[in-house]
Amino acid sequence: MDKTSIQGIVKQLTASERLQFIELLNESIQIDKIFVANNTVNQNRKIECPNCCSTDIYGHGKYRGRSRYKCKSCEKTFNDNTGTAIDGIKKVREFQSYLDLLINSVSIRKAAKKLNLNVSTVFTWRHKLLSAMSILNGNQFNGIVEFDDKQLNISEKGNKKLERKSYKRPSDRKTKQGISDDKISVVVATDRSDNITMKVAKRGRLDVKSIDESIGNQVNKSNIFCSDSHKSIISWANSKGLEHHTFVASKQHVKDKCFHIQHVNSIDNRFERWQKQFYGVATKYLQNYLNWFVFLEKVKNIYDKYSELVKNMFKNIKTISTFRNIILQYENLIILQYCKT
């Protein structure tokens, strides 16, 4: 069919029919984009078992058009989608449409209404995708690294089994002044290449162990570390043998015209403004929202954000296991860690 014939058919459509045609066209383009991105990922990575991470695998036929593999180590079978955020998704067309809504930080209720889905379905999709984004949150740093720690109030938003009366408004909450066990410490770090890391570290005051567990494997002796004068940060930097520059906001902001913590402070401010639209983030899901913000920061200057999201979604074959461990990680953060301290 030539271009003139297509234009003739489109002209015969009513305004509402044209809108439906555009929606169908957009959906078909998204389907093409998601499978093209998947093929690109598979060409550029070594296939490994999502169960035991072994690369000792072999082809095991096809199922519904997808290549299957079998692991020689654990003898589990899997396909290209196993362990990723799209694993087990039945409403693939709606799921693909939701990717654009996630990129634009659309709320769960608005997304559910737009896609004509149950709120709980969209909620699950959101946190599967945010779990997949953890692959971007923790890359190796280069050159100068700026570090900061944030304290956020512990939130039990969404908990139906509270052991206390729920707060009618945020002002009803009574927390201790300064750093305390009522708060969660979050580490924020970035190099000058916008390689951002934001991780939930521990309940209460930050210590050397929690810093090392958060970013210890991302730095080496070639990095130059910049932070405030927190004693635990100083002790950790000394233990790593890093060149370390500390700053007190009321006294000094920049050293030698290049050492400062202005980039990481700017990230803190942008995160604060961004997360306000959710009217509070439950501590249980805080790490996922940090992953989300890191992703948005990394792709803010990229035109095709959809393809970037799809590529990272397929790269992370540990998404489902991460998603299933959210409650366990939360319990370890709030209960077990508190008992140890």
Describe what this molecule looks like in 3D.
The mean pLDDT is 84. The chain has a domain at 139-160 and 180-302 and 328-340: Nucleotidyltransferase, domain 5, CATH 3.30.420. The protein has a five-stranded mixed beta sheet with strand order 6-5-4-7-8, sandwiched between helices. It has a three-stranded antiparallel beta sheet with strand order 1-2-3, with no helix packed on it. The chain has helices at residues 3-12, 15-44, 92-103, 108-115, 119-132, 208-215, 231-239, 262-275, 286-299, 305-315, 319-324, 326-340, and strands at 57-63, 66-71, 77-79, 144-153, 183-191, 196-203, 224-228, 243-247, 254-255, 259-260. Helix 2 (15-44) packs across helix 10 (305-315) and helix 4 (108-115) packs across helix 5 (119-132). A hairpin with a 4-residue loop joins strand 5 and strand 6 (196-203). The protein contains twelve helices and ten strands. The longest helix has 30 residues, at 15-44. It is α+β, with helices and mostly antiparallel strands. The termini are far apart.
What is this structure, in a nutshell?
The protein is an alpha+beta fold. It has 12 helices and 10 strands. It has a domain of 158 residues: Nucleotidyltransferase, domain 5 (2-Layer Sandwich).
Strand content: 15-25%
CATH class of the domain at 139-160 and 180-302 and 328-340: Alpha Beta
- Rounded mean pLDDT is 84
Label the CATH architecture of the domain at 139-160 and 180-302 and 328-340.
Answer: 2-Layer Sandwich
What is the fold named in CATH at topology level of the domain at 139-160 and 180-302 and 328-340?
Nucleotidyltransferase, domain 5
Name the poorly predicted regions: none
